[in-house]
Design brief:
Elements lengths: L5 E3 L14 E6 L2 E7 L5 E3 L4 E6 L9 H10 L2 H7 L15 E5 L7 E5 L10 H18 L4 E4 L11 H14 L6 E6 L2 H14 L3
Parallel strand pairs: 3-9, 5-7, 5-8, 8-9
Antiparallel strand pairs: 1-4, 2-3, 6-7
The structure holds ligand AR6.
């Protein structure tokens, strides 16, 4: 085991292994941000306690997009476990901006941190809600001694957040709240979002 080495299970035999395409930035003297393209359901850090972040909805019982993919890859135990997360009000297990943790079950990552980003057109304070989703996900990781965390572009799919604005909130929040986290990875599904994130990280972070 090479601590800190990152793997996308699907790609390990491919010559275009994504680990060669990882852009790395410093978040602090002791933490890194890595930006890569790929499928977050395939992500893990070999031999470490790690977590992927699920861009869920408040019910926390699965859905479309990355949430659907994560539930399919984790297997049905994930939904059963989510079902047992107490409701804070009817139908709401994880209010917007908060985060909850479960095991990863069949996923390569050991944990899933479920968070809920804002619906861009509905939330009157979308930047604060999006920032809370990143901040609380990192807090939950820290509380569970998880030092490697992978995020997708929360709210940038079904929830309609403009990519450039989302990247600013995501990267600046992570920079401010990365204490005790060794590596934060963004695993981004599409070229356009990947390119926006790379540019924004170049503007906001030294490397
Ligand atoms: N790996 C990485 N990123 C992915 C993957 C994947 N496997 N699949 C999609 N994405 P979305 P949201 C990207 O819609 O906007 C669900 O129904 C996707 O291209 O998954 O926060 C939930 O249940 C986009 O860039 O999440 C909620 O109801 C980003 O992940 C709602 O959608 C986020 O898109 C949440 O909407």
């Amino acid at each position: 085991v090479n601590p800190g080495s990152y793997s996308l299970r699907q790609r390990t035999r491919a010559s275009s292994n994504m680990s060669t395409n990882v852009a790395q930035f410093n978040l602090s003297p002791t933490s890194f941000l890595k930006i890569l393209k790929g499928d977050i359901t395939q992500w893990s850090i070999d031999g470490s306690s790690d977590a992927i972040v699920n861009p869920a909805n408040e019910r926390m019982l699965g859905g479309g997009g990355a949430d659907g993919a994560i539930h399919r890859a984790a297997g049905p135990e994930l939904k059963t476990t989510c079902y047992d997360v107490p409701e804070v009000r009817p139908g709401v297990r994880c209010p917007t901006g908060e985060a909850r943790i479960t095991p990863g079950f069949k996923l390569p990552a050991s944990h899933v941190i479920h968070t809920v980003g804002p619906v861009y057109d509905v939330d009157s304070n979308a930047p604060a809600s999006l920032s809370n989703a990143y901040r609380n996900s990192l807090r939950v990781a820290r509380e569970n001694n998880i030092q490697y965390v992978a995020f997708p572009a929360i709210s940038c799919g079904v929830y309609g957040y403009p990519f450039d604005e989302a990247a600013t909130v995501a990267i600046s929040t992570i920079k401010e709240h990365c204490d005790a986290i060794k590596e934060v990875h963004f695993v981004l599904f599409s070229d356009d979002i990947y390119n926006v994130w790379l540019k924004k990280a170049g503007e906001l972070l030294p490397n």
